[in-house]
Amino acid sequence: MLARKFGTRMAGRGALIVFEGCDHSGKTTQCRRLVEWLQQEQIPVEPFRFPDRTTAIGQMINGYLSNKQDIEDHAVHLLFSANRWELVPKMRTLLESGTTLIVDRYAYSGVSFTAAKEGFTIDWCKNPDRGLPRPDLVLYLNLTPEAAAMRGTFGKERYEQTDMQLRVAKNFQLLKESYWQVSDVAHGPLVNQSWHKTYQGCDQGCSG
Question: Of 18, 116, 121, 183, which residue is 20 to 30 A from 81 by alpha carbon distance?
């Protein structure tokens, strides 16, 4: 689906690391912690989060997710993809300069959520994202939708419904590839040391 294979990062390039998972699985918290650790290690790093709600496209998506406006399902899927594409030039520039990117959601979320709707196939949902920079590592945070529903403000946004999240979780399983690592977060957050080792392993593998 995406352009670059794991293990082909040139020396001096940054790593592209993505956190994925269903809503309220802890992705944002783990992204922040990994960014903070990399900063402490004086490793150039930049966080990204999709959808990026600061752009014009992102503001349309925000209105949709917060139930302030309705958008036809095909159209909103393309908006989510366009929101990723509009940041690709910045992402590529940073990667080529040696900056590691820590990304909260990516194309896999876009595919998993739209394919959870009636009348959509995973193959169709993949098409708009073909050619995006491919992650060196995807960290999938595994949490059941039932457990996620007990967290925070679950239910506030459009897709935060247990039935929807169950279908999304099944789609994520269909998208897993060799460069994914799955972490069970049902019993608490990831231990810092575990993703420190994960990053180091990714960095060594990508540079080889």
Answer: 183
Residues 6+ apart with CB under 8 A from 7: 136, 205, 206, 208
The domain total for the chain is 1
Query: What type of residue is 181?
Result: Q
Instruction: Judge if the upstream peptide bond of residue 133 is cis by omega within 30 degrees of 0.
Output: no
What would you measure as the largest C-alpha separation in the chain, in angstroms? 48
Candidates 122, 92, 95, 89; CA nearest to 108 is 122
Q: Is the CB of residue 1 less than 8 Å from the CB of residue 130?
A: yes
CA distances from 143 to 72, 129, 185 (A): 29, 26, 6
Residue 2 covered by a domain: no
pTM to 2 decimal places? 0.85
Closest by CA position to 101, among listed 85, 90, 111: 90
What SS3 class is residue 181? strand
Question: 83-106 pLDDT, tens per residue?
Answer: 999 999 999 999 999 999 999 999
pLDDT surpasses 60 at 13:
yes
Residue 134 has pLDDT above 90, yes or no: yes
pLDDT value of position 191? 47
